[in-house]
Amino acid sequence: MNTYNEAKDQKFSNETNDCSVVALSIACDISYADAHAALAARGRPARRGAYTHQSIDAAKDLGYTVHELEGDELVNPETGCGYTATTIGQLCKKGRFMVQVHRHIFAVVDGQVQDWTKGRRHRVKRVMEVTTGAAKPKVATPVKRLSIKDQVREALMKRYRTGYTISQLARLTGGTESTVRTAIADLKNPKYCGKGGPLNISKTANPHGARFLIIR
What is the rounded distance in angstroms from the CA atom of residue 187 to the CA atom of residue 196? Predict the structure, then answer.
C-alpha cells in the first residue's frame, strides 16, 4: 500500500501545493509521478492546487470508479454531527477514499488517514470512494439477506434511540426509498407487520432530515 510518507518521499523537488497529487497517488495506489501526470492532463498547473473535480476526473482516467458520498452519509448517525479528519475513519472503514476539507484533500485507506491532518479537527466537506471496476461501491452493508421489511425492523430495533432516515435505510437494506416507506407502513400495521408484531414507529425531524425511530 502506498502511504503518505512514501508518497511524500516521491515528491518532485520543485513541487508545492500538491496535496491533490499525494491524495490521488495513495487513493489509487500509484506512484507520485503517475498521479502528477494524470492531474496535469486534467489541467492542474505545476506548484498549484487542483479542483476536486480534476482529482475525480484524473482517477477515472486512470481506470478507477469514483463514487461520491452525499447528504446524510456524511453525518455521523451516533452523534448527528459531521465528520472531521479525526473521525472520518469511522465512515471509511474499508476501501480507498479521497476526502476534501477546507482548501485541502487527503486519502483514507481502510479507515486510516494518510495525511498530516490525521488526529486534527478539520471538518470534512466531501468524500469520494475510489474503486476498481465499474460496479457502484457500497459503504453500508445490508443487515442480513432478509426481506426489506425484516431488515428495516431489525435495523430500527438495533438503533431505536437515534433511528434512521429513509435514504439510510434504503442503502442499508439495498432497497429503494419507496420500498422502505412501504416496509415502515407495513411494520406499523398489525395486519401486515409479520412476525414480531407491529412496531410503534415515529417520525422525528432534525436538521439533517426526518428520522424514523421506535417509541418504547
Answer: 9
